[in-house]
Amino acid sequence: MVSLRAVLWPLLALAGLASAKSSSGDNVLVILEPALDKSNFSIFFDGLKERGYKLTFRAPKSVTPQVIQDEVATFNHVVIFAPETKAYAQDITPQSLVQLLSLNTNLLIALSPKQTPLTSLALEFSLIPPPPGTPLVSHFPERDTPATIVPVRVPSSNPILSTTKAPVWFSGASHALGNNPRLVPILRAPAESFAADSTDDSGSIAVADAAEKGGEGLWAGSQMGLVTGFQVVGGARATWVGGVSVFSDEFAKKEISKGKKSGNQQFAQDVAAWTFQESLVLRIDRTEHHRVNETEPLEQYTTNDMITFTARISKYDGVKERWESYSGLKDLQLEFTMLDPFIRTALSPVAGKPGIYSATFRAPDRHGVFKFVIDYKRKGFTQLHSSTTVSVVPPRHDGYPRFLSAAWPYYAGAISTSIGFLLFSTLWLAGDVREMLMKKGKGLKRE
Amino acid sequence: MAPKAAPSSSAQSQSSVQTLWSAYSEQTPDRLKFIDSFLLFIMLSGVIQFAYCVLVTNYPFNAFLAGFASTIGQFVLTASLRAQVNPENKSEFKDVSPERAFADFALGSIVLHFFVFNFLG
């Protein structure tokens, strides 16, 4: 066994080196519009290659390689940089893209102010696009670029993005966000920006009028999204980007202010890392439950038992390219439910045991079929769900505590009654015999 | 009037209790007195358990029920034994001989105690 392991270990290590950067694989299909030049996105694509992805390029209308062959996704990730394409080859339809997501393939999709089939698909993801032909416009801050090229401050608290604070150049369409809980806003529009079909001052009167009516009919403000993620039930991720130029070399090199580089390069890689399930990917390795001070799980627990529930959670580490125990979740909860949660308690990390989360609680004084439920849904993170069914039964007839000191008067009462009964019976029968003897004696005396 | 009447009535009741007691001790057969003493013992035991339940704790309740029910049940069985073996009730229990009455009593008590100890916990 040891020798086998010694032989296998270097092989495994090699496999590890060759394995994917992403937790779901490293094959990327890039569907690139003929109008866009590959070399204009070299910084973004080279960044992906450097991190271990294999890129395959394809035009929207070419027939091969197909995205789904024999119901199996051909690639692990699909990047669609075709913001103005209206017609695709037969294998790329809104339905096939949704099917890709259910096959755990991630999508990175660029939109534009133009109306395309992808704009209508965005509606299905609860993103509401503005009227066609209205790019994002902002006149602030004052700068020498056109009003449609907008510097956007990167939110500092978003776990998806790394901590570099440099603003990002953006040019394209914004979108309003529906109330779908699976949406993950990554980049929002600046507060002073709006969507307009003209950058002329003539259009500004209409904008000012709309603003005076409380913003009715106006696509404006920081509630609009520019880059928005969507995480489907299976864990696949789709990211919608309002403008493809966010990824371009031009914006990556363009300075925000004199001598200060824009954040586009880092931002593009962060967005790709999240979309390709490289960052913020969690999984539950295993869950265990047992009575306190025992180790074996029980099929059924007794009411009021003290139960310990343990979960082991791993996070994918894109740098080391492996799953690592993760103790960083501070707000994990465990529910013990029978239709409603009877108990909802914090499932907190155990100090000194990486990745182990544990909670001990008293089973409710109620019998029935219960479930241990972990349901962790946080913006950006993989959604964790685990459910284990156990039954809780009342104590067996001999399962109650016995010989309680408080009950001794009752025990003494019952025992004394029994002893009293025995004594009484004995004396009664003895009395019978004595009476008989006495009767006999009297009879003898009479004779 | 009242102060005078009170001592006289208490004296009267005292004398009536004495009369009752002397009548009981003279006219009751020894066998019935023996039963009565057993009844008294059971009654006191039940009263003590009930007081403990009310004043101290009723936990575990099944133990209280078992202990208290054993005194009640034993009291009822013993009282019926007393009724059946009393010579003055002979006309009412023509078919029941004292031996038969005692056998019923013993069997009932054994079944009762079986249940009591099963329930005592």
Automatic annotation (TrEMBL), chain A:
The chain crosses the membrane at residues 408-430. InterPro entries: DDOST_48_kDa_subunit, OST48_MD, OST48_N. Keywords: Endoplasmic reticulum, Membrane, Signal, Transmembrane, Transmembrane helix. It is a single-pass type I membrane protein. Residues 1-20 form the signal peptide. Residues 27-275 form the OST48 N-terminal domain. It is found in: Endoplasmic reticulum membrane; Membrane. Pathway: Protein modification; protein glycosylation. Residues 289-430 form the OST48 middle domain. Component of the oligosaccharyltransferase (OST) complex. PANTHER family: DOLICHYL-DIPHOSPHOOLIGOSACCHARIDE--PROTEIN GLYCOSYLTRANSFERASE 48 KDA SUBUNIT. Belongs to the DDOST 48 kDa subunit family. This is Dolichyl-diphosphooligosaccharide--protein glycosyltransferase subunit WBP1. It comes from Hohenbuehelia grisea. The lineage of its organism: Eukaryota, Fungi, Dikarya, Basidiomycota, Agaricomycotina.
TrEMBL record, chain B:
It is found in: Endoplasmic reticulum membrane. Pathway: Protein modification; protein glycosylation. The chain crosses the membrane at residues 38-57, 63-81, 101-120. It holds the Pfam family DAD. Its main location: endoplasmic reticulum. It comes from the Eukaryota. The keyword Transmembrane applies. Keywords: Endoplasmic reticulum, Membrane, Transmembrane, Transmembrane helix. It is a multi-pass membrane protein. Belongs to the DAD/OST2 family. Subunit of the oligosaccharyl transferase (OST) complex that catalyzes the initial transfer of a defined glycan (Glc(3)Man(9)GlcNAc(2) in eukaryotes) from the lipid carrier dolichol-pyrophosphate to an asparagine residue within an Asn-X-Ser/Thr consensus motif in nascent polypeptide chains, the first step in protein N-glycosylation. N-glycosylation occurs cotranslationally and the complex associates with the Sec61 complex at the channel-forming translocon complex that mediates protein translocation across the endoplasmic reticulum (ER). All subunits are required for a maximal enzyme activity. Component of the oligosaccharyltransferase (OST) complex. This is Dolichyl-diphosphooligosaccharide--protein glycosyltransferase subunit OST2.
